[in-house]
Amino acid sequence: xxxxxxxxxxxxxxxxxxxxxxxxxxxxxxxxxxxxxxxxxxxxxxxxxxxxxxxxxxxxxxxxxxxxxxxxxxxxxxxxxxxxxxxxxxxxxxxxxxxxxxxxxxxxxxxxxxxxxxxxxxxxxxxxxxxxxxxxxxxxxxxxx
Length: 145
Prior knowledge:
145 residues, mainly beta, Immunoglobulin-like, six-stranded antiparallel β-sheet, five-stranded antiparallel β-sheet
């Protein structure tokens, strides 16, 4: 996992995370959405931008997604469904696909990871890792024991 810190737009970016599975690269860039968050009401919202790049020699279709989301209290939410943002993109060799989505939490930090189920044009299915990434409210103070 590589991480590179950046800042973008009105959201505060915490870094970039990368994973490579069978020459399919997934890059995630999470950012805190302060204008949609309300800490007084225990509502914290993050957006994330994902770029999927097909560096392989085969075409693939993103069939389903799986997310494992954990808040700072250890509460887990699992999300599954067809495609991403209403689409099941087909990526030929050299293609990239980019989308943005979001995640609300009841706590000021959390973590997400998951996978995409891909399918080749020959019908072979396999999982592509979505790297684990942290959702941290800017200026969050943590206590380590």
